[in-house]
Amino acid sequence: DEQFLKADGFDDAIIGVCPTSMRLVYARDKMIEILMQDDMTEEDAIEYLEYNTWNTYFGEQTPIYIEL
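RE: above sequence
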């Protein structure tokens, strides 16, 4: 069993696993939608994710975030 590094609260945005690096792959659009469901504006959601999630490095298992 592989242990994946997950972005807390964004399980619904997982779209797969990279077969080469065995890292989770998230859809950025879905992550934004999840935050907007919590009454955040799109602009605030993007700013939050850029600062706290997308541009952070947590080691070799850092998830991959892609635009669909």
